[in-house]
Write a structure and sequence with these properties.
CATH superfamily of the largest domain: Carbon-nitrogen hydrolase
CATH topology of the largest domain: Nitrilase/N-carbamoyl-D-aminoacid amidohydrolase
Protein name: Glutamine-dependent NAD(+) synthetase
Number of domains: 3
Number of helices: 18
Number of strands: 18
Shape: elongated
Structural class: alpha/beta
Strand order of the largest sheet: 5-4-3-2-1-14
GO biological process, one term: NAD+ biosynthetic process
Pathway: Cofactor biosynthesis; NAD(+) biosynthesis; NAD(+) from deamido-NAD(+) (L-Gln route): step 1/1
GO molecular function: ATP binding; glutaminase activity; NAD+ synthase (glutamine-hydrolyzing) activity; NAD+ synthase activity
Largest sheet: 6 strands, mixed
Family: Belongs to the NAD synthetase family.
Radius of gyration: 25 Å
């Protein structure tokens, strides 16, 4: 009989920051040792951060990463932790072709004691590993105090065959996997179902240790867990937070003991938190302390401002009201109310004098005159960004991006777009959830997220309201001409978003959409709008991916419109 305590170190790493990532490994290994852990497991490519993309092709970086792994092994031993088995991810090199490898290493007794290379290299969706890495070709079983521990890296358990099939023949006591699995709605259940199948296949419990944190347009949600041979959930870490949890393996027991199971968030909370974490980490890893954005009084800018306040505090949000001659008093009041609720900076910069000056020279009409207003606002937002060192955030949603309902160099300006993967109807749903959470006591910054692992309730909100109710309930409008409504140019969002979801996220073509029951005129209108806007989307800022198919890394449409079926 062997009893082994595993520590699941679910941490937030930064691509390229070898020193900070190694220091974090040291910190969590010390914590694990105090709780008598024997094996400490970290996420995929721990030392290098993930995904490192073409940085892996730089030989000097690979050498630096390997030197850091050796330093870490030595340092662990010097601190009296050499007896532990510390499992970290890094980048290695294939000796035969000098290509990089996605590698798992075990640090023990002051040395890099063992290594394993990822076999299956994903080349779909957001992944480009097949182009970058050389695949491994050997399975590995670790002997830890007489227990047989099989290892795998992320995609290795998603594909049939390969190392898992080989380990199924090895009579292992546990399958240990390190992962860098990005968040998307519904993926938590998919991962769990997969782990249950693999645990049954190898006839052993399975540890699924996942990365947490934002890296550019990807958000890693953590949610690490352990399943027993029969599919019982034994341990589950919280989502979106750094965490150190423990699992005790008894090799003689038919079934393992159930430990701590973190509560699963509400679906709307999950998506909101993913967007906030994406923004929060993007700012932290690019050294921004605050954001600026235009506050129109509409729901999109209101939700983005709320997310920014939850990410970095309301005092670090600079909202700019830029009313024109077409802006309603109600919209201006809603923007002011939002800033007051958030405790944000709030400036009013009327654009009419600038618009008149431009028109005196250009004499624009129609859409050109409407877009001029948006571009004037974009200039003002970027002026705040440059002068105050703030990250300008764009406020467009996925429905607008899909249909080209945004102005390039206008409301599309910014360095990050927190809601670019949320359809308009989802924006409303999530805004209602945030107000519901505020009424229940979740203040500004009270989100369960990296940096708030201690569970602070945040700064209380006036009257328990974060987003002005009128911003949620009023008919959406760009207010670029008298009486304008979004529905003048687009189908109603309730219908539009249904078509968009099927066309974009489910890859339905025209014939499929008609078979789905949508009328021909609506289908043709939406497809035309979406296809024609591809060039705009290519220039839009990046933002967090939260759906199965997001604009950017995941998907593009033919620029020529030649293929429409």
């Amino acid at each position: 009989m062997t009893d082994i305590r595993f520590a699941l170190a679910q941490i937030d790493t930064c691509v390229g920051d070898l020193d900070a990532n190694a220091d974090k490994v040291m910190h969590y290994t010390h914590l694990a040792a105090r709780s008598n852990a024997r094996v400490v497991v970290f996420p995929e490519m721990t030392l290098t951060g993930y995904p490192i993309e073409d940085l892996a092709l730089r030989a000097t970086f690979r050498k630096a990463a390997w030197d850091k792994a050796n330093w870490l092994a030595t340092k662990l031993a010097a601190d009296g932790l050499g007896g532990l088995y510390v499992v970290v991810g890094t980048v290695g090199t294939d000796r035969e072709n000098s290509k990089p490898r996605n590698r798992l290493v075990v640090l023990h007794d002051g040395v890099v004691w063992a290594g394993y290379d990822k076999h299956f290299l994903p080349n779909y969706g957001v992944f480009d590993e097949f182009r970058i890495f050389s695949p491994g070709n050997k399975s590995m079983v670790l002997d830890v105090d007489g227990a047989r521990i099989g290892v795998a890296i992320c995609e290795d358990i998603w594909q049939d065959g390969g190392p898992v099939a080989e380990l199924a023949k090895e009579n292992i006591d546990l399958l240990l996997t390190m992962n860098g699995s990005p968040y998307e709605e519904g993926k938590t259940d998919t991962r769990f179902d997969l782990a249950v199948r693999r645990a049954a296949e190898v006839q052993a419990p399975l540890i699924y240790l996942n990365q947490v944190g934002g890296q550019d347009d990807l958000v890693f949600d953590g949610g690490s867990f352990v399943v027993d041979t029969d599919g019982t959930l034994l341990e589950c870490s919280p989502m979106f937070m750094e965490d150190l949890s423990f699992f005790d393996l008894d090799t003689s027991a038919e079934h393992q003991k159930v430990g701590t199971i973190a509560a699963k968030p509400d679906p709307d909370e999950e998506v909101y938190t993913a967007c906030v974490l994406g923004l929060k980490d993007y700012m932290a890893k690019n050294h921004f302390k605050g954001v600026c954005l235009g506050l129109s009084g509409g729901i999109d800018s209101a939700l983005v401002a709320a997310m920014a306040a939850d990410a970095v505090g309301g005092e670090n949000v600079h909202g700019i009201s830029m009313p024109s001659m077409y802006s309603s008093d109600g919209s201006k009041d809603d923007a002011a109310d939002l800033a007051r609720n958030l405790g944000a900076h709030y400036d009013i910069q009327p654009i009419e004098p600038l618009f008149v000056s431009f028109q005196h020279q250009l004499k624009l009409e129609g859409v050109a005159a409407e877009n001029l207003q948006a571009r004037i606002r974009g200039v003002i937002v970027m002026a705040y960004s440059n002068s105050k060192g703030l990250l300008a955030v764009a406020t467009g949603n996925k429905s607008e991006l899909a249909c080209g309902y945004s102005t390039i160099y206008g409301d599309a300006v910014g360095g990050y777009a927190p809601i670019k993967d949320l359809l308009k109807t989802r924006v409303w749903e999530i805004s209602r959830w945030r107000n519901k959470a505020a009424a229940a006591g979740m203040g500004i910054g009270g989100l369960h997220i990296v940096g708030n692992e201690q569970g602070s309730a945040g700064v209380p909100l006036p009257d328990g309201v974060m987003i002005p109710v009128n911003s949620i309930e009023k008919a959406p409008s760009a207010e670029l001409r008298p009486g304008q409504k979004d529905s003048d140019s687009l189908p109603e969002y309730a219908l539009l978003d249904q078509v968009l979801a099927m066309y974009i996220e489910h890859a339905h073509g025209r014939a499929d959409l008609l078979a789905d029951g949508f009328d021909e005129a609506t289908v043709d209108t939406v497809m035309r709008l979406v296809d024609r806007a591809e060039w705009k989307r290519r220039q839009y800022p990046l933002g967090p991916k939260v759906t199965a198919l997001a604009f950017g890394r995941d998907r593009r449409l033919p620029v020529t419109n030649a293929f429409r079926e």
